[in-house]
Amino acid sequence: MIKSMTGYGRGEYKNKIGHCTVEINSGNHRYCDISVRMPKQFNIFENSVKKLIKERFSRGHFDIFITIDFFDKSFIKLDIDYRLTEEYIHALSKIKKRFNIKGDLDLQTILRLKDIWKIEERKQDERKIWNLIENAIKKAMKSLEDMRIKEGKAIYRDTIKRIQLIKKYLDRLKQRLPEIMDKYCARLRERIKGLLNELDIDENRFSQEAAIMADKSDVTEEVIRTDNHLDQFLNLIKTEELIGRKLDFLIQEINREVNTLSSKVSDLLISNLVIEIKSELEKVREQIQNVE
What we know:
alpha+beta, Ribosomal Protein S5, domain 2, two-stranded antiparallel sheet
């Protein structure tokens, strides 16, 4: 069954050191494109995160958001750079005096000086942190895949319906072709008679010329190829393979054959059928853009 490239997944995991939440948004992309956002101190795990995604998914753009809340906050140590604080206070006092600025230099003013704060982090066990992230990602990927499968089923149902409708239009078109050729030959005969002022026509010569002109307008080959491509599409979409690119290629081929067919035949009914076919093909193409 086909899978959509569009979806959302969320996963949470806890261990002794903390709680990790992972959210994954996925959308269309020709390849596997991954963007990871997490606290910068954990950027060392970015390549490992991308590897996990690529092992499970082959195509799509993935935005991954990772947050971690540690239970033990003692690994963060907050201190003050007293020497720098003294320099700030001395400088501020000089500014007050030089420019005759009124008011007291209070604690609130000093606390706004971000540079005076020193934050030290005690190194954590990387294996435990990765265990936290990895398990949360796996749960998020499972949630994402479930949604992609569900979306894929909806795409499958809609696409099958449209391809079968295209085949019906194509059958009506095939039924119309013999009548078109007969009318074409009749019109050709009348035109030639008019040009020759009702003179007798060499039937053998006329038949040869009519056959040549009819061959130029014959679209049997295009119709057969279109029908074959549609059958290939229906067979391929039922497989378990990753088929998004193959389906996209088939749609391009079908569209090319239909365009050639349309340019060869001048008939109102066939023109209308071609419009309907191309309209359905465009809707199928839009759906297939979402297939992994």
